[in-house]
Amino acid sequence: MIVKNVPGAVAAHTRGILPPMGDHSGHGHGHGHSHDPAAFAGVRTSSLPRNAVLGLLVLVAVATVIGLVTLWPDGKRPHAEYAATGVSYPVATVVSAHDPCPVIDPNADPSGTPEMPKGCDGLTVKLADGTRVDVQAEPGAVRSGLRKGDRVTLAKVPGAEGGAVYSYFGTQRKAPVGLLLAAFVLVVVAVARKRGALALVGLGVAATVVGGWMVPSLLEGHSPVGVALTASAAIMFAVLYAAHGISMRTSTALAGTLVGLGITALLGQLASGWARLSGLGAEASDPLRTFAGDLDFRGLLVAAIIVAGLGVLNDVTITQSSAVWELRAASETMSRRELYTSAMRIGRDHIASAIYTIVFVYAGTALTTLLFVALYDRTLLDLLLTEQFAEECVMTLSSSIGLVLAMPATTVIAALTVSAPRSHGRRRAAW
């Protein structure tokens, strides 16, 4: 790919002007042409664009710190009781799982509906003190394959005269989820090594910002868009520099990411208004309206749009910045226009794959909903334009547009930031 797009580098190697890939000897500029990211450190940058990018990032960093302090949650958010007074949630061990109840056809003749077998969808469990109780479980619990020895959580409601009523609350999944998490961490560190470990640190910082700052701040009624932009900027500063190191290459990717975030926020704000969305399409909106009715639900939708595109946006911008740095490392004779054109060829392939990723991830998570939609005698378009599905469409399309536009923006910033082209020791025109 690089050899094809950098004819100047090939010609220079043929004439013996440039050393072999990775050879630093005999050249004052002292940078190699290895494809290892460490070689990027030798790529020169132009002072004016570099200072402009760093100045922009400093301003955004200061604004982010001000936003974090100004919008800091003070603990006065609304609360809802999770359970009635006296209700507890003991863990029990499954002794046996009963047969699942048959599925009743809603269109069948009611007179011919079979009687439900006694105890179907039930569990016999043993409490910590050895007491055995029978509880009715939800249909999915028994059909999931619960068997003897599995652990479940019960809801214990105090009864009269010291007795208690038990009901199924949920299945304990700490072991399988914990093992998957451990496997994920081991694989990331084994394959990506130091970079992978630093990426995990960045992911931990992101989780802390979202759970420890963004969510409480939103519940306290602060501006959803302001909170989302502040949290997203803080996350991107942490994640990009932790995973990819502190360098101008990472800084240009961060600048492109911030441009994409701004575009996404603007589009989300406009699109939610054009589509007359209320932000109340999600299932969790009803309890939120009950316990925190003063929230700006349309603003929360825009905040969700901003956060939804962070992962793929980060992926695209760092790839584009690295592409430009790699091209300049391979050839000092390419003009900035050639750098931009070559990097955009890479970026177009990446964008095509990223769009597929976004669509298929959503299709996978919404597969059950799509099957439910297919049961009705209405067109798919009619159902997609209802409040619930329209919110998802606007979210996906707005974040995707921001993603696509961030790619050329990052490429331009990177192409301007790297050094001007050279030819036999003389500078060529930049464009």
Automatic annotation (TrEMBL):
The UniProt record lists the keyword Transferase: no
Keywords: Membrane, Transmembrane, Transmembrane helix
InterPro entries: YibE_F
Membrane-spanning segments: 52-72, 175-192, 199-219, 225-243, 255-277, 297-318, 354-376, 396-418
Pfam families: YibE_F
PANTHER family cross-referenced by the UniProt entry: MEMBRANE PROTEIN, MEMBRANE PROTEIN-RELATED
Protein name according to UniProt: YibE/F family protein
